[in-house]
Write a structure and sequence with these properties.
52% helix; 0% strand; 4 helices; mainly alpha
Length: 75
């Protein structure tokens, strides 16, 4: 059972990314998505990250809301 707090900082950690505030802001400065691309299709994800995003959204998992926030911030 996942009992972690589901926020953007912890999502970055879950994805294996540096989750310091500065690195999160740098990520958003360096990455963006066109409106017609699904988040999981972004070229900057590795296979594990892509799978986690897809599976979480398909299952409407606890991470879904934060993944939606990530998606919005990348647009």
């Amino acid at each position: 059972m996942d009992t972690s707090v589901h926020n953007l900082k912890n999502l970055f950690a879950q994805l294996g990314l540096d989750n310091s505030d500065a690195k999160i802001e740098a990520f958003f400065s360096q990455h963006s998505l066109p409106s017609d691309m699904l988040l999981a299709e972004a070229p900057f994800w590795n296979e594990g990250q892509r799978h986690f995003i897809e599976e979480s959204l398909q299952e409407d998992a606890d991470w879904s809301e934060v993944i939606d926030e990530l998606d919005t911030r990348l647009r």
